[in-house]
Design brief:
The structure holds 2 protein chains of 2 kinds.
Chain A lengths: L3 E10 L2 E11 L4 E5 L6 H9 L5 E9 L2 E2 L5 H7 L1 E4 L6 E5 H15 L7 H14 L10 E2 L5 H15 L3 E5 L7 H13 L6 E5 L3 H6 L4 E6 L2 E6 L2 H9 L2 H6 L1
Parallel strand pairs in A: 3-10, 3-11, 6-9, 9-10
Antiparallel strand pairs in A: 1-2, 1-4, 4-5, 7-8, 11-12
Chain B lengths: L7 H13 L8 H16 L14 H4 L12 H13 L6 E6 L2 E2 L13 E5 H6 L3 H7 L7 H9 L4 E5 L9 E7 L6 E10 L4 E10 L7 E10 L4 E8 L6 E10 L4 E8 L4 E10 L5 E10 L4 E10 L5 E10 L4 E10 L7 E10 L5 E10 L5 E9 L3 H9 L4 H17 L5 H18 L1
Classes of the chains: A alpha/beta, B alpha/beta.
Adenosine-5'-triphosphate binds next to helix 1 of chain A.
Chain lengths: ~250, ~450
Amino acid sequence: MSLLEVKDLQVRVEEREILHGLSLTVNPGEVHAIMGPNGSGKSTLSHVIAGKPGYEVTGGQILFRGEDLLEMEPNERAAQGVFLAFQYPVEIPGVTTWNFLHAALNAQRKARGEDEISSPAFLKKVREVARSLNIPQDMLKRGVNVGFSGGEKKRNEILQMALFEPAVCILDEMDSGLDIDALRIAADGVNALRSPERAMVVITHYQRLLNYIVPDFVHVMSKGRVVKSGGKELALELEESGYAQFEDAA
Amino acid sequence: MNVVAKTETGRALGDAFAVVRDRLPGEGKIADQRRQAFEAYERSGLPHRRIEDWKYTDLRALMREVLPLAASPDDAALSRARAVVQARAIEGVRRLVLVDGAFAPDLSDWQDLEKGLSINPLRLALEAGDEIVATQALASDVANPMIALNGAMATDGVVIDVAHGTVLTQPLHIVHVASGTAPASTFTRSLLRLGRDAGVTLVESYLAADGAKAYQTHDGLVVAIGDNSRLDHVRLVEDSVDAFNISSATVSLGAHAHFNTFGLTSGGHVSRYQLTVTCAGEGSTVETNGVNLINGKQHADTTLFMDHAVPHCASREVFRAVVDDRAHSVFQGRIIVRPDAQKTDAKMMTRALLLSDDAEADNKPELEIFADDVTCGHGATTGALDESLLFYMRARGLPEKEAQALLIQAFVGEAIETIASDELREVAIAAAQRWLQARA
Ligand SMILES: Nc1ncnc2c1ncn2[C@@H]1O[C@H](COP(=O)(O)OP(=O)(O)OP(=O)(O)O)[C@@H](O)[C@H]1O
Ligand SMILES: [Mg+2]
């Protein structure tokens, strides 16, 4: 069974259709890259998969392990193993990163019928992950993303991904705002999570990220549809020729 | 406006006062003082919305009548009270318990006092004819009907004296418990007098024993803080959902004195807390902070009057309201800077968080500045929880109520943080948690 199956998805935002029949099938162990011009609907797709309010699905479906994902609350989706690394992570003043992550992890575990993780065990775990991603410990004591640089926010997303060990990870422009060293560290963090059970959907504008996180499939999105799919060489092709050829196809 | 209008209820209470007068401690001048206070109350009766100060809290509509005086607690009442007092005990404090408006010696730690501390039940002081206590404790702003009524009717309370140079290490905790199984009113007054160079931490809680019904608590606290002294004060209103709590505190500060007060209201059907703080000595500083956490059909009003009478004083107010369902939060903050009070530094910031479309928060700041060399300001905001934050948190696995709870904690945390003592901050956080848990 596929892990994630998006079938002929049509989505409206404020009376305007953004996705016009988008399909995508992701199997365990696969890494998919989605590329496409600004405004083509990449973030919209990621938001609908994560369950963000404000999007009206007018047609098609999304199945996660064969179940109707659109019927689930965002938190249920997270507990079932859907993870979205946000293009623009929000700041949450007054809620410490450490407290937030502990509460979130325990909420997920509770939803799955697992035992809660104690503070010391959690602290140990989160410290290890933070160290591997070069995230200073004191960042964990600060409000979630408050005063973090753009790059630090992105690393914090990868930290959460590593902590929650989801089944499918959607990374929305995780490379934007990262310097070259940070990009390598974050990509290493992502690669470390690749496994035969886990799938990744990497949304990016740049071929460079795909040198670090090598995809099995590359999809080109334009105007709310997947207009071309291929292997990793498709990304190189795009780098050469741009999106113009696909704009018409859409 | 017809201020002498006597409602049916007004008449009924007038008769009730005549009936209970003999049960009220104190004779002679003290009885005269009560009668004058009662007459002041009777001239206006229960305040209503056409009186500016009571615009948002119309007691004629909300409360309708003042219930008859509660009976003195019997053994059954005391044992119900004991249960809730123990359940809500705060570690390491000296506890003073008032049950149904009567000091409960057996539930209170009022023996073996530290040097420099004295504690007496108000009833005993009044019965002994202590006119100084009577004048200070029962003093009432006769322009304020509910404070006047409280002064007329007060049956008991605690009189606490802290001598010059005494810094208490153990916090004092006044616990008001309603045990009543029949609807009734309690009237209490407490007096706290701090000498020079003294320090006290005072907690006040309002609780209901299991099964307490639709009672009315009328309480008053009168505080004098001497020169160079400090009072840290935390007040928690956790009355039962059908209770009324109409209370006041009148605080005056000497020179270089400090007053840090924090109030949290999560209980009660209708509550009104009137806090009057006067900087009477130069160089004093005041921090008055508060949180309302209310839902259902609760109505919670905090009305602050900050009086800068002398130069070189500073005051800060941080107030946060979290309002759910059809509840109604009111914050009125009036700061007056008198002509002599140059170099006053007064700031007030209130924020309300509305969790439902029917929730209401009224905020009325008033600055009256009669001095020219001052720094004063106020700000207010009202809003809902940020949807984008909620979605982010839910996308990480937190159910909606839990995500809201974290954001609410952060929101009220800004006021709770102002509590100077670590232990008291924990006490306030625990009270906020109780509300959040009951909501989840
Ligand atoms: N809440 C909204 N209201 C109105 N239009 C929206 C809303 N959200 C997205 N859109 C529109 O939907 C289209 C797709 O936006 P989306 O953010 O999905 O694009 P994207 O492919 O992620 O672009 P980028 O590469 O710039 O991140 C855009 O035209 C955008 O303006
Ligand atoms: Mg995008």
